[in-house]
Design a protein that fits this description.
CATH superfamily of the largest domain: Glycosidases
Radius of gyration: 24 Å
CATH architecture of the largest domain: Alpha-Beta Barrel
CATH class of the largest domain: Alpha Beta
Number of strands: 19
Shape: elongated
Number of helices: 16
Bound molecules: ligand TNX
Strand order of the largest sheet: 10-11-14-15-16-17-18-19
């Protein structure tokens, strides 16, 4: 199953690229480099993804990170202090030692100040202002999340080498800018299927780190499917001991203990990412059915499954034990999950009547609500009677009219943002049932135009799912997510009027040194004039 990707060298990429793209992606950015008065280190023009709402030149040419730089944080906010420490650790990779983090009021020359407080504009809970001048750097936001996003923007303004321990281009400079920024949508998600192939806690943490750089704020974990049950449920232990013991292709599978899951949730929360757990039901449940005979209508447990067909399994919707089971599972996961959502799946059920299906969804929706969470389901659930709080996640290209009744929607159109679709026919891994999804296809679409008849304010945002039937390693995950994921992040964050493909393609090209420094196994799409 394992495939190696042969990546074209930078030179091959450039040779293959159209001259126009080389111009847009390379020359325009490089010739914009300014020169600082104190020394000859070039300062590159600011390049940020997702594109900020507004970004102008700041006072002076650039801020130089000197050996005495300090990070100043508010005295009384643990979250902002943690963001300050993370920033200091990042900067420390390129300085002799990490900057000191100090509580207190601002400030003097040469400092980086993170401050909580109002702004002239209402930037909401996630917005921020970033001012870089030759004297100092200031990030200001109403809430810690905004500070975190301001720091992610700052991070992208730093030389890419800062991402790689041990590389020390001295002195480091940050171009002088004034950024005022806030997201278009509250939901900017990614989904990882840890069921078809299992990705362990360290791998999920790595994905969280990469998501955070692009201001993604939800990670939906697809924790169960036919091929594997991946989260420990104390009251139904066979789910993991048996149901978690394999994967697509027959590998050993795996699962998160409750302690590991809690740690993952906390790790993501420190990066302002909410984990959204999914237990897919009533279909996609072979792993559960194989673990407990009583969940089957005929009382007989099927064998474990390691193929990639869909639609054949279902919980027995007429048995009481099914709902006791669901209540236990939802209850345990809800207790481990501080985020407000629980995803109940609901996709691709081929063995129930529409009435059986709708009754099941309505019943499970109530169980989820009883455990204090808002329900989310794949778009098939729109045919049921939904509570106003329930969120419908659009995915099927053919889903249409029934979605206009949904009051709350997340958009994951498969032909745009399914990161498991091949880039082109020759992509060595991935599926293609929704077509090939090139880098431009995943970027050049407007959530407001996607579905007819849907109220604009019903759209909470976008989410990029990554299904793992054909993905075995983190290298595979990164290969499918990069370069498409940052584009989806920008669809979710940046104002529509500010977005355009040629401009985006140039900013994307400029990410290459950072991805290389981070060791990301990206697909170096030949249509992008990657900078090296
Ligand atoms: C459809 S999207 C599925 C998944 C598959 C995926 C592969 C959805 C709700 N169901 O079970 O993994 O296609 O692209």
């Amino acid at each position: 199953m394992r495939t190696r990707h042969t990546l074209p060298s930078a030179a091959t990429v450039l040779r293959r690229s159209a001259p126009l793209l080389v111009f847009l992606g390379g020359a325009a950015l490089l010739t914009a480099a300014a020169r600082n008065v104190q020394d000859d280190t070039p300062v590159r023009a600011p390049v940020v993804i997702p594109k900020p709402v507004s970004m102008e030149a700041g006072a002076g040419a650039a801020f130089t990170l000197g050996p005495d730089v300090r990070v100043v944080v508010p005295a009384d906010d643990a979250e902002v202090e943690r963001v300050g420490r993370a920033l200091a650790a990042l900067l420390g990779r390129a300085l002799e030692a990490p900057p000191l983090v100090e509580a207190g009021p601002a400030s003097g020359r040469g400092q980086i100040t993170l401050e909580l407080g109002g702004s002239h504009a209402d930037l909401g809970d996630e917005g921020y202002e970033l001012n870089v001048s030759s004297d100092d750097v200031r990030v200001r936001a109403a809430r810690p999340a905004g500070i975190f996003y301001g720091v992610q923007t700052l991070r992208q303004l730093l030389p890419a080498a800062v991402e790689h321990r041990g590389l020390r281009p001295q002195p480091m400079k940050i171009p002088a800018v004034r950024v005022v920024d806030s997201p278009r949508f509250p939901w900017r998600g990614a989904m990882l299927d840890v069921s078809r192939h299992f990705f362990g806690p360290a791998e999920v943490r790595r994905y969280v780190d990469l998501l955070a750089l692009y201001k993604i704020n939800r990670l939906h974990l697809h924790l169960s499917d036919d091929q594997g049950w991946r989260i420990e449920i104390a009251s139904w232990p066979n789910l993991t001991t048996h149901g978690g013991s394999t994967a697509v292709g027959g590998g050993p599978g795996g699962f998160y203990t409750q302690a590991e899951y809690r740690e993952l949730v906390a790790y993501a929360a420190e990066r302002f990412i909410t984990i959204v757990p999914e237990i897919d039901m009533p279909g996609h449940t072979n792993a559960a059915l194989a673990s407990y005979p009583e969940l089957n209508c005929d009382g007989a447990a099927p064998p474990l499954y390691s193929g990639i067909d869909v639609g054949f399994s279902s919980l027995c919707v007429d048995k009481d034990v099914t709902y006791r089971f669901i209540d236990d599972v939802v209850g345990e996961i809800a207790a481990l999950t501080p985020g407000q959502w629980f995803h109940l799946g609901g996709d691709e059920v081929k063995t129930l009547t529409p009435q059986q299906y709708a009754t099941f969804v309505e019943r499970v929706q109530e169980i989820v609500r009883r455990h204090g969470k808002e329900a989310i389901g794949w778009d098939e659930i729109a045919a049921s009677t939904l509570d106003p709080s329930t969120i419908v996640q659009h995915w099927r290209p053919e889903a249409g009219e029934e979605l206009s009744r949904a009051r709350r929607l997340i958009l994951s159109p498969a032909s745009r943002v399914y990161l498991d679709m091949k880039y082109h026919a020759g992509t060595p891994i991935g599926l293609n049932w929704a077509g090939n999804v090139g880098v431009e296809e995943s970027y050049a679409w407007d959530p407001s135009d996607l579905l007819e008849g849907v109220a604009r304010d019903a759209v909470l945002g976008v989410e990029a799912p990554l299904w793992s039937e054909t993905l075995v390693t983190m290298d595979d995950v990164e290969f499918m997510a990069f370069p498409r994921l940052p584009g989806v992040a920008e669809v979710g964050w940046s104002p529509e009027a500010a977005r355009g493909w040629p401009d985006y393609a140039a900013r994307l090209a400029a990410q290459a040194p950072r991805w290389s420094a981070l060791g990301i196994n990206a697909y170096w799409a030949p249509e992008i004039a990657w900078e090296r």
